[in-house]
Amino acid sequence: MPEIPQGAADRLRARLSKLEWTQADLAREIGASPAQVCRWLSGERTPSLEMAFRIQDSKIGIPAEAWVTHGDADESGEHPASTSRTRTG
After folding, report:
1. Are the C-beta atoms of 83 and 49 separated by less than 8 Å?
2. Residue 85 lies in a domain
3. Is 56 among the domain residues?
4. Widest CA span in the chain
5. Could you tell me if residue 17 is inside a domain?
6. What integer pLDDT is reported at residue 43 of this predicted model?
7. Which pTM does this prediction carry?
8. pLDDT of 64-85, one tens digit each?
9. Does any domain span residue 47?
10. Looking at the 3D structure of the chain, how many domains does it have?
11. Cα gap 50→30, rounded to integer Å
12. Stretch 13-25: mean pLDDT
């Protein structure tokens, strides 16, 4: 089982608290399901590369690379470090 970057989950939890957002609020903001957000916060899963960038581009603002674990694939099976993306907006 891949190592989950717990620091990223802790940062996400802290940002949700600071913004007074629920898991459902974040899910709506980034087009995820509440169950996905719950799994990220529990450390059960990491966001896909696309979801990591959606988190980054939202009011949450946690950089996508915070979810990267060396050598591990995300929930889509894609290694986040293997794909580049230019931030828009």
Report:
1. yes
2. no
3. yes
4. 35
5. yes
6. 86
7. 0.72
8. 998 876 544 455 555 444 444 5
9. yes
10. 1
11. 10
12. 94
> Dihedral angle at the C-alpha atoms of 37, 60, 66, 47, nearest 10 degrees?
30
CATH for 61: 1.10.260.40
| CB proximity list for 25: less than 8 A, separation 6 or greater | 16, 19
- Across the range 53-73, mean pLDDT stands at 82
Mean pLDDT lowest among 18-22, 50-54, 78-82: 78-82
Could you tell me the pLDDT band of residue 15, with boundaries at 50, 70 and 90? very high
For CA atoms 50, 75, 62, 68, give the dihedral sign. Answer: negative
- Read off the tokens for 60: 């949450």
Map residue 24 onto helix, strand or coil.
helix
Contacts by residues 1-4 (CB-CB < 8 Å, ≥ 24 positions apart): 2/46, 2/69, 2/72, 2/73, 3/69, 3/72, 4/43, 4/44, 4/45, 4/46, 4/69
Range of the domain at 13: 6-67
